[in-house]
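Lecture 7, part B: from sequences to assemblies.

Below are the input chains for today's worked example.
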Amino acid sequence: MRPEGTKAIDGRPWAPDEAADALRAHGCRATRPRVAVLSALLEHGGTISAAELTALAQEIEPGLHEATVYRTVNVLTEVGIASHVHAGHGPSLVRLAGDERLVAVCENCRAIVPVPIGAVSDLVDGMARQTGFALEPGHFALEGVCAECAP
Ligand SMILES: [Zn+2]
Ligand SMILES: [Zn+2]
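Predicted structure of the full complex, as structure tokens:
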């Protein structure tokens, strides 16, 4: 199941079997671990922790080691297929390159919650107006407590 709005690097909708083509198009050998990790990332379509990505990739390629997934994410990032979001003091989150959507991470359960851009547009506009600073949120996750964990 592909989430709506997930686009390939060239703007077409993703299909999992395109992972190998995407790897080759970026000058990467399409090894089984790479295809599994990229397919899992494409299937998920959003921002994901490396641990969760490992679990998804293992459904495609059983026995895949977590260390291999981390190395593969680094390769995918180097060639411009994947990118990262910093989340607090923990390990970076992973997503497709070009995905600028803002996310919030729950400090309690580590849930990753998408943030509608409208929720921060007043902050972005206010910063620009009052200080001239062009705020570019997205590379860092916002922090707080999710609806499930809120007291
Ligand atoms: Zn960074
Ligand atoms: Zn939570």
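Note for the exam: The first strand starts at residue 48 and ends at 49. Keep this in mind when comparing with the next example.
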